[in-house]
């Protein structure tokens, strides 16, 4: 509850600054880019990360006991920029009664690398698909050896359903030039494309079929022979011989 209230105060502070700067600043207030230098600064040395039940980093503990809160979607950026033992500069709102900072940014003093909370990650919709072109460096596989994507020369990962990868295997050969259209997610760990169309060039693409939703557990789409009948439901025994 306190963290929610502090974050609300943070947005009020930023909105007030934007209004005071005129109409141009107001139009920028909707963008996820803020000047966190206007917020109070705290400095200290990182003792450890704080983790969510899923293992994502959602903050830091400093050696003086201060708890620094960050959203879990910044987990990768935090681990890349800041490690235990690093001295950091934290910009954010401090709690009144406990050593807690709701951070808008955390900067590694030695390297200058910063982690900035600009809001939730941008999840692009189907109408915001991008087109990516490159040369295939290698294929990616599932646990059964089925092809489920490729990696381009620049490190971009392309993912598509295994049945479609099998259907388009000639286009996914190593060394081939390829163009794809799809949902692009660019993270600190790399760029990945959820492929919706694929082809030799942006002008010649084939739509990727969506995976078929799974049917009932014992329906006609199941694989393998039918399961054996449960005990007591087998064929009746032969009649006794007279």
In CATH, the topology of the largest domain is named OB fold (Dihydrolipoamide Acetyltransferase, E2P)
The structure class reads alpha+beta
The N- and C-terminal alpha carbons lie at a distance of 82 Å
Low-confidence stretches: 1-6, 8-32
Note down, in words, how this protein is organized.
The chain is built from 4 helices and 12 strands, in the order H-H-E-E-E-H-E-E-E-E-E-E-H-E-E-E. Strand 2 (57-62) and strand 3 form a beta hairpin. The strands form 2 sheets. The protein has a 5-stranded mixed beta barrel. Strands 7-8-9-11-10 form a 5-stranded mixed β-barrel. The termini are far apart. Helices cover 16% and strands 36% of the residues. With 242 residues, the protein is of the alpha+beta class. The chain is flat, with a radius of gyration of 27 Å. It has 2 domains: 2-116, OB fold (Dihydrolipoamide Acetyltransferase, E2P) (Beta Barrel); 126-207, Nucleic acid-binding proteins (OB fold (Dihydrolipoamide Acetyltransferase, E2P), Beta Barrel), CATH 2.40.50.140. It has helices at 2-20, 23-28, 75-81, 162-167; strands at residues 41-51, 57-62, 67-69, 87-94, 100-108, 114-116, 130-141, 147-152, 157-159, 177-187, 190-201, 204-207.
